[in-house]
Amino acid sequence: MMAAKPIKIDIGLTEKSRAKIAAGLSGLLADSYTLYLMTHNFHWNVKGPMFNSLHQMFMTQYSEQWAALDQIAERIRALGYPAPGTYAQFAKLATIKEVEGVPVALDMVRHLVAAQEATARTARKLLPVVDEADDQPTADLLTQRLDVHEKTAWMLRSLLEE
Predict the structure, then answer these.
(1) Which residues are CB-neighbours of 111 under 8 A, at least 6 positions away?
(2) Cα separations in angstroms, 74 against 68, 77, 111, 147
(3) 36 partner at 20 to 30 Å CA-CA among 7, 65, 99, 128?
(4) DSSP 8-state assignment for residue 70
(5) What is the pLDDT of residue 4?
(6) How many Å apart are CA 149 and CA 100, to the nearest integer?
């Protein structure tokens, strides 16, 4: 059986731009999935005096993150590339490292602050590439993700202040 001939994509972005943007979005997807998994893990395993508030907060955060994964992956697909979708691919692409064991509640918050900030940095790093290519849909997606990650990091940091 012969392989299917690739369909030409002509959406006003060069092949080189689409490839570079898809690669950057793949890194964002990997960080986003790692953040999602970390947040869900902490939701399941948090304990202590702040249990109820953190359990609920983490659920709100991982639910939002879950929806974002689809948006990022679908943008990669719209650009004509396969979205990474395995733990091995995510581990290779992510800037966020998994947390070993079960940290105490406030250390969970610290880990999540760092992971939210790392995901924001990954998104921000792609903005100049997207701007240069004049890719407004990806710029819009990145702006939305930056808003969420920066706001969530601030809310989490607020829990650590005296």
Answers:
(1) 38, 42, 99, 103
(2) 10, 5, 28, 20
(3) 128
(4) H
(5) 58
(6) 23
Rounded Cα distance between 27 and 35, Å, is 12
User: From residue 134, how far is each of 15, 114, 118 by CA, in Å?
Assistant: 13, 30, 25
Neighbours of 92 (CB within 10 A): 12
Q: Which two tokens stand for residue 30?
A: 């990997």
Do residues 152 and 116 touch, judged by C-beta distance below 8 A? yes
Count of residues making up the chain: 162
For position 13, what pLDDT does the model report?
Answer: 85
- Mean pLDDT per segment of 10 residues, for the chain of length 162 residues? 66 90 97 97 95 96 96 96 95 95 96 98 97 97 98 96 80
Predicted confidence at residue 2, as pLDDT, reads 59
What is the rounded distance in angstroms from the CA atom of residue 93 to the CA atom of residue 112? 18
Distance CA 46, CA 157 (A): 17
